[in-house]
Design brief:
Blueprint lengths: L3 H7 E3 L1 H9 L3 E4 L2 H6 L4 H15 L3 E8 L2 E4 L3 H9 L4 E3 L4 H6 L4 E3 L1 H11 L3 E3 L10 H4 L4 H8 L3 E4 L8 H10 L4 E4 L18 E3 L2 H13 L6 E4 L10 H18 L6 H12 L3 H24 L2
Parallel strand pairs: 1-4, 2-3, 2-7, 5-6, 7-8, 8-11, 9-10, 9-11
Antiparallel strand pairs: 3-4, 3-6
Helix pairs in contact: 4-5, 4-14, 7-9, 11-14, 12-13
The structure holds pseudouridine-5'-monophosphate and manganese (II) ion.
Length: 308
């Protein structure tokens, strides 16, 4: 955690989140890259607001993270969320970009990596996202491994996601997490979910049917001095899950197009997300919204156990 002095210098915590911190109420951090770069307007705005509402309805306080005019923000107002959803000059901000964006008074959307980092600066223990970044397909050649995995490994936080998209190499992503000691818990499943679909074919070691088991695992990890994160794979609700063949075809095509166009680095994930969305006539966007909202609900429930 940052010292009080450094929090004052660099961070603005919203009154609602500050009040929750003072009273030790459950807090759920939410990322902002999904708002600025992961979904089109107006669904990005609607989803960001509905996730905040769902977190509140489930007894926790939402803390959307971002960098606005160089200030690290924990908890945004509705107007600020709208700004993140509509402004064109928002940098997708990973750890590498973070000090530059802050030092130069710029606007940054926090990825899972920098949302974890931001949450940890102020001591928040849980983050909700849609899908995490991971080891990209072909990473053996490109070295493209999302910073999300390292931040997850290095910070004491529970991250709730709907698994990883098969734009990534899910098997290698799980291997990487194992190397860095991150438990991956399947909520009601014994497989790593694949974001748009409930199954990926990759088995998880731990299936948990109750949120208190998840909170207990995280607490035990930290009490034992085993610092670092815990990843929860929460499958998309059955009724919203996509047809596996259709989504896989869209992903394969998007990967070929990215290769042909020479898309690299931080552009890769937003490029693939956009192509998949277009190839599925917007159906993938509907699925995406349902799964994020579902994560917000489960995340708030886990947070309540964590803080109890
Ligand atoms: N996966 C999604 N939607 C997203 C992202 C990932 O299904 O919006 C975003 C998240 O913010 C994640 C980031 O942290 O992309 C990963 O980017 P990269 O692969 O460049 O590390
Ligand atoms: Mn990358």
């Amino acid at each position: 955690m940052l010292s009080k002095e450094m929090i004052e210098k660099y961070v603005i915590i919203s009154p609602e989140v500050q009040n929750a911190m003072d009273k030790n109420l459950p807090i759920v951090a939410l990322e902002s890259t999904i708002i600025s770069h992961g979904m089109p307007y107006p669904q990005n705005l609607e989803t960001a607001l509905s996730c905040e509402r769902i977190v509140r309805e489930n007894g926790a306080v939402p803390a959307t993270t971002a960098i606005i005019k160089g200030k690290i923000r924990v908890g945004l107002s509705e107007d600020e969320i709208k700004f993140m959803a509509t402004s064109k000059d928002i940098i997708k901000c990973s750890r590498r970009d973070y000090p530059y964006v802050v030092a130069n008074g710029l606007n940054g959307a926090t990825t899972v990596a920098t949302s974890i980092l931001t949450a940890s600066l102020v001591g928040i223990k849980l983050l909700v996202t849609g899908g995490i970044g991971g080891v990209h397909r072909g990473a053996q050649e490109t070295f493209d491994i999302s910073r999300d995995l390292q931040e997850l490994a290095n910070n004491d936080i529970v991250v709730v996601c709907a698994g990883a998209k098969s734009i990534l190499d899910i098997g290698l992503t799980l291997e990487y997490l194992e190397t860095f000691g991150v438990p991956v818990l399947g909520y009601g499943t014994d497989e790593m979910p694949a974001f748009f679909t409930r199954r990926s074919g990759f088995k998880l070691d731990f299936k948990m049917d109750n949120v208190d088991e998840i909170a207990k695992t995280a607490k035990t990890k930290w009490e034992l001095g085993l610092s670092g994160g815990v990843l929860v794979g929460n499958p998309i609700p059955q009724e919203a899950a996509m047809n596996e063949a259709i989504i896989n075809e869209a992903i394969e095509k998007a990967l070929v197009e990215a290769e042909e166009k020479g898309i690299k680095g931080k552009e890769t994930t937003p490029f693939l997300l956009d192509k998949v969305l277009k190839a599925t006539d917007g159906n993938s966007l509907k699925a995406n919204i349902v799964l994020v909202e579902n994560n917000a609900r489960v995340g708030a429930q886990i947070a309540r156990e964590l803080y109890s």
